[in-house]
Amino acid sequence: MVEVEAALARALAACRLIPPDAAAAVVAACDVGRLDLVALAERAATSATPVIPLVKALTSGADPAAAAWLHHGATSQDVVDTATVLQLRDAMDLLDTRIAAAAAACATLAERHRDVVMAGRTLGQQAVPVTFGLKAARWLGALDRRREQLDWLRPRLLLVQLGGSAGTAAVYGDDADAVASALADDLGLGVADLPWHAERDRLAELAGALDAIAGVAASIATDLVLLAQSEVAEVAEAVGDAPASSAMPHKRNPVDAVAARAAARLARGECHVLLAAAADHELERAAGAWQAEWVALPSALVRTAGAVGRLGRALAGLEVDTERMRANLEREGGLTASEALAAALTPAVGRPTAQSVAGEIAARAAASGTSLREAAASDERVTGVLDADALAAALDPSAVVPRASRLVARALATHDRLRDELPSR
Amino acid sequence: MVEVEAALARALAACRLIPPDAAAAVVAACDVGRLDLVALAERAATSATPVIPLVKALTSGADPAAAAWLHHGATSQDVVDTATVLQLRDAMDLLDTRIAAAAAACATLAERHRDVVMAGRTLGQQAVPVTFGLKAARWLGALDRRREQLDWLRPRLLLVQLGGSAGTAAVYGDDADAVASALADDLGLGVADLPWHAERDRLAELAGALDAIAGVAASIATDLVLLAQSEVAEVAEAVGDAPASSAMPHKRNPVDAVAARAAARLARGECHVLLAAAADHELERAAGAWQAEWVALPSALVRTAGAVGRLGRALAGLEVDTERMRANLEREGGLTASEALAAALTPAVGRPTAQSVAGEIAARAAASGTSLREAAASDERVTGVLDADALAAALDPSAVVPRASRLVARALATHDRLRDELPSR
Amino acid sequence: MVEVEAALARALAACRLIPPDAAAAVVAACDVGRLDLVALAERAATSATPVIPLVKALTSGADPAAAAWLHHGATSQDVVDTATVLQLRDAMDLLDTRIAAAAAACATLAERHRDVVMAGRTLGQQAVPVTFGLKAARWLGALDRRREQLDWLRPRLLLVQLGGSAGTAAVYGDDADAVASALADDLGLGVADLPWHAERDRLAELAGALDAIAGVAASIATDLVLLAQSEVAEVAEAVGDAPASSAMPHKRNPVDAVAARAAARLARGECHVLLAAAADHELERAAGAWQAEWVALPSALVRTAGAVGRLGRALAGLEVDTERMRANLEREGGLTASEALAAALTPAVGRPTAQSVAGEIAARAAASGTSLREAAASDERVTGVLDADALAAALDPSAVVPRASRLVARALATHDRLRDELPSR
Amino acid sequence: MVEVEAALARALAACRLIPPDAAAAVVAACDVGRLDLVALAERAATSATPVIPLVKALTSGADPAAAAWLHHGATSQDVVDTATVLQLRDAMDLLDTRIAAAAAACATLAERHRDVVMAGRTLGQQAVPVTFGLKAARWLGALDRRREQLDWLRPRLLLVQLGGSAGTAAVYGDDADAVASALADDLGLGVADLPWHAERDRLAELAGALDAIAGVAASIATDLVLLAQSEVAEVAEAVGDAPASSAMPHKRNPVDAVAARAAARLARGECHVLLAAAADHELERAAGAWQAEWVALPSALVRTAGAVGRLGRALAGLEVDTERMRANLEREGGLTASEALAAALTPAVGRPTAQSVAGEIAARAAASGTSLREAAASDERVTGVLDADALAAALDPSAVVPRASRLVARALATHDRLRDELPSR
Q1: Which of B308, B389, B395, D18 is deepest in the core (most CB within 10 A)?
Q2: Please, what sign has the CA dihedral across residues A329, A332, A333, A335?
């Protein structure tokens, strides 16, 4: 806020609305070091906004010219909102950097484990083979899409607010546009068509974006937690210097993924506050919905950035047990090939018969503890239409690799393109 | 879903994966009229998805070729998700049409009442004069921005899903990309880089957009409710054939605005379900988060479209009492000019003195029941620096008109541009 | 609503405010069969409430005495709110019945598997042994507590609304209390101290309760989904006649648990609408917050009851694989006994040394693939303080049974008490 | 947490599980002053819980006996959860005190202005007369009900957690119950039937209660904001030393009510996090849902207490302009008596005719700018059935007073009863 008051004075001087000396005096007065922050916070609690006591504190003991012109023509909301946008710019940079880092870690995982076969799981059940490369590529795609959304939002959000008491910037008269432009230039921000004191739809869009980002972080972190379960054990977080459990020294907790999930939940709470607040701004300034943003917006940014940061750490150090992936696939007797078996039979017998034959064989294999392969190889409905080689080919989980690999290549190509197109922050 | 199954058969035939006759048989079987919807719903409740009983019902009694090839290579989620996207396309069209209609009504209001002076109100208190044109222009801007967001989202959302059981479309082998493209062409949709069975960040972005749209509708509707209050009475909804209150025949309830606010609240609930669900999709298919979308997504669209539709009706017929606007401004003794008074005094005495003088005069006027104008004209601290003409000019609420009018012009220019750029749906 | 109008007429007659014949005429007119519900819905959409067209429809073509007295002295909100309470009563009964059924299933599981040892899992990692009986008992406790909450809420919620236009029931004059009592008696409801047209804190409390109930259902259902994972496979839902996956015939999907989780998510959305609405009721009747309740409240009840119903079905037919539970515990080499090992060493060497020795042994066992038991038996720091029997006792997972069994007994005792205290609905 | 570790040592000594000297050493080590809180926070960020580094820090440099026995048999969650309950107890006391203070202010307002007639407003429109006493009594009722809910919750929430790693308190063997009881006694808390590491339904119930409390605060604060609007001006907050608006010296902002509304919105966000988290706790300890509680629960308490505190301040100093209340009622030409007019005509002509006559007269009065009284007095359909005195009595807004006054008395009687029954905290 102090930075905004100083920039406003410079802008007013640039537009010749206040003398250059006055601007210099204001800028000199705008020194955070002069403030007693605790006293200021206390006074803010009894005012409608923190700006009133801030202006008082900055002008108190300052050069009379500063006292005369500091905050000239502005309303509290101009200062609070523009200051918020300055914070938002930094936060969006941090967020973008962290998403990019997590995406880079996914790209590395996708390349390194492109052809590693593992179980795909639907509703918690092993379903059909996939590759770990494809899984990492899907994570990558979601992260990259969120960077695109942030990039789309940036110019729509990073705007000065300068409308005076009710959006008309009446005090500046015909110079209102010039002052807003000068202020925006000074701060490196844009200018909106219209004042946005009570139109907070842009912040609603931001809240939706943050919620989506936190959601991507949570969703990937959930995959990590599930894959790290004792009975699955396909991935583990790097041990680093993280202490073990206080009571269970053997545990290998997915600490960063857990923290990412917790932070994402917390972020959603604040995003929800912002979305509801945006709907409730009324007339020329809201009586409650605006004030809630003061807390919820920075908190939403911190929590979202926390979720992405912890996820990035989990991904960057992720240990992948590719042997266990293959073993888990086999341990269920190769039942995940039942879809492939049905597909291989379909040309000869039609889909319904193929499905029912494959289903029966799978059930028999599961009940008897033999593998699907053996059960299929001893079933005449299968051997009547598929020879041994064809059957082996159909049941080989590696059959998924070529297609999955092409999908990975696509995600990596998109990632490379975005890395070039979206500037790193 | 029936449409998707038919399109899939055509796509498979186009890729020569099934015979043309089989495709024709599938298409013939895909007739909604053949379904017992109640029985289907009951069976769906005991299955993991509605697709299993649907496929059974469509193939039952159908040509054997249809039974053999219907649903070939697809998983339930392919059908449900693609069908959802088809609904979404229609819903987004409807939503865009309704937002455009509400925006057009705002543009008309902004033009017609461009220079009508009224009280700007902050925290419920009359603050400084604004124009009704500016208010309508601000509503317009928010609505137009939401159309831009929908336009940005459209190609990111309107995508087929065709990944088979775990996203690899394994059954189609090397033809997987070709089948997906053919299906997309058939349905007029796009193709995603990657399967999105468990990456629902796009739906989170949609939920954020719907919440923002509903929020804009609610925020404008709230303005209407507040301006229609008995004691304010600056706007009223068209009476039409809406019956009066059951017990209070004199009331003029803002029925459409109230309905818009209620629908927007309801929409937010479903958007929140979607945002939370997107964060909780796991592995290759979610065990609960996906299924919740089946209800929440269509409901969110209906509720959001309802909110915008009711708002549009309220705006289209809005009665604006411009005399009452002026009278309300005067009734408070012209106190809303106190900021302007302070601004007029500032060049001569500096901002702090000017503010305190204006404040004292305003307080004296309020306490004595005289107008600010009279109180200022009899105060030497004012008359010493402002002559009668200058004082009158400073206190004239119409002084806001030129600046406000330029802002209105900007919003209308943006609106015109978007009307050309964004195709009407 | 029709039922409420009829009851009101009887109450007015009982208080001698309308003639008995008029009451009889009103009751005769209050016949749902006389209504064209589609036309009524359309008219309701353009009115502030559905009651205005309803009263018109009921009086149209009715006995003139009915037309003269139907809805006498009531406001729309009286009818809508009281009708809502009637629905709520039925819904609370259904909900209580379903929670009780799910609790009974848990009690059976807890008794039957009281002493079955299995892995306790924290953060997804096997931690220490627990019993399945204890797990079921914890589920039971949560369900029983929710019944207690419903029981506490019942008399606080099941209240008539009869305040007329603004809560004063002015039309009835001195008879207002008598009419309210008579109406309440007629409908079997209570009477509140005060009108509650705009004080919706009771509904907020209900929404909190529904959210808590849905949360319990979701939390238990999540346990079922996790325990049913292919790699864990300790429980499975009864197969019944649920069809298998469309593409993966071998899968054993936890269909009911998944549906319970989905329904609980959906319930939360509506509860959130209700909680937000309760905060936004203003003055004597809300302009939007009240109307949102019309949709959100019944929907919240349906969704919550759906979640509990599906959970109950999952629990009632649950297949428990106690051998697999034991095998999973062993498969990790008995590492879950590391806490017990540390505890056994503590008296001799102090907690820090005990923890670090146990940790080292666990790490060595995990790295070498031997069991914790073997690794401990060959470590002098252990054998120096524990003889073979003491070591075996310390590492026996069954050591948890006595304490867990006492906890189960407590939960069952509480359950039995509540079954007696809380009437079945 | 430090307090819990100390109490645990005392409890263990009381149960003779550790020597008295060891307990004394632990208690001595449990000195917050010995902690480097910043370093602790940093280490906590890389651990699964803050307890691991806390135990390390407390034992570092402590008496060896302390190091040997501090945290004996407990898991991190035991310490975090029990410490949370200690905070919760203080917070619930604070909250109850603040609700009671706000309720007391309402009781004073209800008594003082029991018979002050004002406009009741539905959907923002003047509807029928009410009294300000009744309005304050309705606020009072909602606040008192929330105290009752807190009282119901208190014994259900204020419970120790002591289950060890997975709820079985295995390390304590047969002494587990005794240790839990001793710990509970030491801390003045209760003991639950069962461990509640993953059953968070009690916290969901708390979150619902906090949301309901915040909602009551918001709803009353909204009434204050609406009644304080410039055009209504029936109430105003005490000016105190709150500075005026920065740019608009004449404004009388409802600062405390606005802050209460903002805080209540923020509280709802955290309550929603807690409700969602409760639904997602899994198995023996949640991987994310639990950790989110660490932030959301204290924040929810702070925000809710903030909302109630600011509301209490607004109510305690509320200035009530009873003349303006009467004037606002008159200013609309007495149209709020139209319901009463219809009621007075009903016995003679039946409800439909009475309503339509009253409606026509009200419309004529509104259109011509005369009062309802005059319009009615000159209408033969009225004068034919009501003489001048009867008409005057019917249209007198004071007719509402007796009934409203009885309602106020009821609310005050309940309030007095609760003041006696619920101990002040």
Answers
A1: B308
A2: negative
Q: How far apart are CA C343 and CA A332, in angstroms?
A: 37
What percentage of chain D has pLDDT greater than the value 70? 97
Asked if C176 and C239 count as a contact pair (C-beta separation under 8 A), the reply is no
B11-30 pLDDT, tens digit per residue, is 999 999 999 999 999 999 99
Catalytic residue at D245? yes
Tell me the three state secondary structure of residue C284.
coil
Q: How confident is the model at residue B243 (pLDDT cuts 50, 70, 90)?
A: very low
Average pLDDT (B277-297) is 97
Task: Flag whether pLDDT at D303 surpasses 70.
Answer: yes
Contact check, Cβ <8 Å, C128/A228: no
Whether residue C262 contacts residue B90, with contact meaning beta carbons closer than 8 Å, is answered with no
Six-digit token string for B341: 């008074």
Is residue B65 left, alpha or beta, with left meaning phi > 0 and alpha meaning psi from -120 to 50?
A: alpha
Q: Which residues of C are catalytic?
A: 245, 285
Q: How far apart are CA B117 and CA B334, in angstroms?
A: 12
Check pLDDT > 90 for residue D366. Answer: no
Give, rounded to a whole angstrom, the gap between the first and last alpha carbons of chain B: 23
Tokens of D111: 């008594």
pLDDT digits (tens, 9 = 90+) for B79-133: 999 999 999 999 999 999 999 999 999 999 999 999 999 999 999 999 999 999 9
Query: DSSP characters for C115-182?
Result: T-EEEEEETTEEEEEEEHHHHHHHHHHHHHHHHHHHHHHHHHH-EE---GGGSS-GGGGGGHHHHHHH
Contact C269 B269 (CB under 8 A): yes
Residue D261: name the closest of D329, D205, D316, D308 by CA.
D308
The residue length of chain D stands at: 425
Tell me which residue in C123, C164, C278 faces D287 most closely, judged by beta carbons.
Answer: C123
Sign of the alpha-carbon torsion through C86, C89, C94, C95: positive
**DSSP 8-state code for residue C72:** T
Cα D343 → chain centroid: 39
Calculate Rg over the CA atoms of chain D: 30
Sign of CA pseudo-dihedral A28, A33, A39, A43: positive
* Of residues C250, C258, C331, nearest to A362 (C-beta): C250
Split at pLDDT 50, 70, 90, the class of A346 is: confident
Residues of chain A neighbouring B271 (CB-CB closer than 8 A):
275
Give D-chain residues touching A264 at CB under 8 angstroms: 288
Nearest 5°: phi and psi at C30? -80, 70
Interface contact flag, B247 C75, Cβ < 8 Å:
yes
Enumerate the β-bridge partners of residue D130. D118
State ipTM.
0.95
What's the pLDDT at A243? 47
Q: Which of A305, A333, A354, A307 is nearest to A397 (CA)?
A: A333
Provide the β-strand partners of residue A320: A235
Chain C residue at shortest CA distance from B297: C266
Take residue C302 and report the two structure tokens written for it: 């349906």
Lowest mean pLDDT segment, chosen from C188-202, D343-357, D406-420: D343-357
Look over chain D and give the mean of its residue pLDDT values, rounded to a whole number.
Answer: 93
Taking the CA of residue C290 and the nearest CA in chain B, the distance in Å comes to: 8
Provide the pLDDT confidence category of residue C243 given band limits of 50, 70 and 90: very low
- Record: contact A125-C251, CB cut-off 8 A: yes
The rounded distance, in Å, linking the Cα atoms of B69 and B67 is 6
**C39-87 tens-digit pLDDT:** 999 998 888 889 999 999 999 999 998 988 999 989 999 999 999 999 9
Mean pLDDT of the D119-128 span: 94
- B75 vs B168: CA distance, rounded Å: 11
